[in-house]
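Methods — Computational structure assignment.
A single polypeptide chain was analysed. Its primary sequence is given first, followed by the predicted tertiary structure written as structure tokens.
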Amino acid sequence: MEVLPASQYLEYQKTNKWYYDPSGQVEESSCSSPVSFLSKRLEEEIRSAKRTHLSCGEVLLPCGLLQKVAEDVLQIAETELYGLKGCTLYLLYEGEEDCRRLSNFKIDPTTPSTFEIYLTFKQANAGWTFLPQFLKKIARGSTVVISTEFELTKKKLYRILPARK
């Protein structure tokens, strides 16, 4: 058995980008980018809404949904006066029978809100087709399944007046 020096091992990682590096996962989750910050914040809000507004045991989200939502919100915020800092975000959940407000929060409480974004998560129906009707009613009380479909609606809180001559 041969023991290689650490410098050769590091070179191997740099040249082969396909190599899985678990330290990259830790770095990404430390909220260093706006996408990771916003997706973490959305996750926190959904966790708290799970107990208060949804009254369920668990919420199932499609993989990567919160990152996609965060990217779309950042794209919408690019053209705004204060960017993402001027956003107030409203989380809504649209089920079979109703649409509920889960939460709302300002991205940066110290910056005045210049626009609002209404994010509506939708209930997934495709996963329940194989269950008998009586099992659907039992399972729905304890689990909420979110669809990959969501809706973002932007509302500006200001208007630009034309320049006077």
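Note: The chain is about 35% helix and 25% strand.
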